[in-house]
Amino acid sequence: MLHISAALMALSAMYVDAKYHLTSDLKNLIRTKKAFDGLLALCADLNAKDGYVSAYNGYLRTVQQYPNSTAVISPEGREWTYAQADEDVVAILMSNSAEVYFVKFAMMRTGIVGAMINHNLTGASLIHCLKVSGARVLLCTESHVQPFHDLGKQVVADELNNITPYVIDAHAGPLSPAQIDAHSEKLGMQYVPLQNLKWELTYPHDSWVKPKISERDPCMLIYTSGTTGLPKAAVLPHLIYLGAQWMAPGRNVFFPTDRMYCTMPLFHGTGSVLSMSTIAGSGGCLIIAKSFSARTFISECRRLNATCFVYVGEIIRYLMATPPSPDDKNHNLRLASGNGLRPDIWEKFRERFNVPTIYEFYAATEGQTAAFNLNVSSEGAGKVGRYGVINRLIDPTVAIVKHDHSTGEAYRDPKTGFCIRVKANEPGEIIGQILPETVQRPYYKNKSASEKKLMRDVFKKGDVWFRMGDLMMFDTDGWLMFCDRVGDTFRWKGENVATDEVTLHIASHSAVQDVAVYGIPVQNYDGQVGMAAVVLSPKGKEQFDQFCKELYPFLRKRGVPEYAIPRFIRLMDHITSTHTHKHQKAKLRTDGIHVDKINGDKLLILDVDKKVYQTLEEKHRQLMVEGKARL
Predict the structure, then answer these.
(1) Residue 467's closest CA among 580, 362, 366, 578?
(2) Chain centre to alpha carbon of residue 329
(3) What's the CATH number of domain 387-485, 2.60.120.10, 2.60.40.10, 2.30.38.10, 3.60.140.10?
(4) Where is the AMP-binding enzyme C-terminal domain (predicted)?
(5) In the CATH hierarchy, which fold is given to the domain comprising 51-291?
(6) Structural domain boundaries in the chain
(7) Domain 490-625, CATH
(8) Is 521 helix (H, G, I), strand (E, B) or coil?
(9) What global pTM score does this model have?
(10) Least confidently predicted of 45-54, 185-194, 322-331
(11) pLDDT single digits (tens) 376-410
(12) Closest CA to 316 of 264, 371, 372, 257
């Protein structure tokens, strides 16, 4: 009888462990703590040795371990091994190239802070980013000179008078001094053909005096996407890049044999930290693509023998939108790594393209919290990581708290004034605690914006937490799921509408090529009214009337609540996105249903009685003005 009881207890323990992943969570926590403690010990040793705690130390380790391995392949097909690739601010305005790779690691080595400027910017946004950086030198390529010409000499002289620009050219030369002067005159900037420069160090390597660099010192300025206004520069300290490189081998995700195909811009955090630093720390090869093309993506991975690639969710969606091909599985890709892969296409992508491992991570450029999901099966598919019982008990520096959608702030207990942690399957705002030893990542020269990201007196007087800006929830098994961006969720008819969830369902309709969902204020109506900007597929354009009739029942059949179905649809040829393929909703919200702002786009309104969409006409507007329209 005792044997049976013991067996039952053992089986019960195994079931509980399997359901709640207690053992795996504990192992992950121990492994992470060991790796981080090792990183801090390394920083202490380097500080004691010579005070040179540069992120370049991680790269130097790889150079010493894998000197003859290919480090980087340029978009033109040029290759360099690690051996060959061996506090002012310099602004970098370059497209994806090997030159960006070398310039960034050179800056890490010397202690110069690199301000990574989005090369798609023009006008006021470009001036803003350059001025915020405080850079005294600008490195750009000839293809990015035109925006300065468009601004005009006087504007450049007035606004950017403290910056000395240099136009870098990796393909021309060597040229004579007269040729260089002539081209400089033509460009209006100092022209520097790289082939005229001596790349070798002009002094013995051993005699180089290392600058004093702390792990907390700025390494790079990475700008936010600018989805809600002008981009802000987030400070990434040397510890972030050093950690990404130094801890990479211990994660057993990337290996020296890997060849990572990167279409993400190298001025962005995903391309900069995940692609460059992580693969360099693993001793693998980074294959830099000029830009993303859904049509040629798989064929390029095949041609270049890529074993992994980096993504944001929209990239996967674009790949899934391409016509199926017999060559979809004809490649050597073993892993896709990135963030934002939607749950509804997670397994479909894995099956269609035969990429067995998906390494989804959750983080923010300026954030204090991260989560990872190394996924190889349907278990955990669509999740961004784990937030299990062990994590919540042992690592209380991450929390999900109740959120008040009416104020956009965390909900606080009226009696205590403190925040309240959510329960399982309850969406809330994710925050990360800032401890005295935390290496913070504030916005550069923007104290007010940095302060807005902080929450104080959260669970006790004096504590400080960082707002990641996202609504998340964990299920009963501890899996962490993304719900929406804070501010994207809106209230309508007393209910909270998660735009990300509605977007997911509308995007699954065969007539829809692209969609962005948001809430807009309408006079005489409480809350915000749901609206969707939609780009129709060729099929959708051909069957437009059918689309208008079937979208409502289609969404209801998929379980979308009646109140969450958009009341307005704006038909567009293209939805403007950021460089990381995020929809720029701020302008869409401002445009609303104003005729003078929508550039002739067709507007539809939902007839809530007939359950069909029809053209928004003046009679509908008049009813809304009178507060009589049934929305």
Answers:
(1) 366
(2) 27
(3) 2.30.38.10
(4) 506-582
(5) Rossmann fold (3.40.50)
(6) 51-291, 387-485, 490-625
(7) 3.30.300.30
(8) coil
(9) 0.79
(10) 185-194
(11) 999 999 999 887 777 777 767 889 999 987 777 89
(12) 264
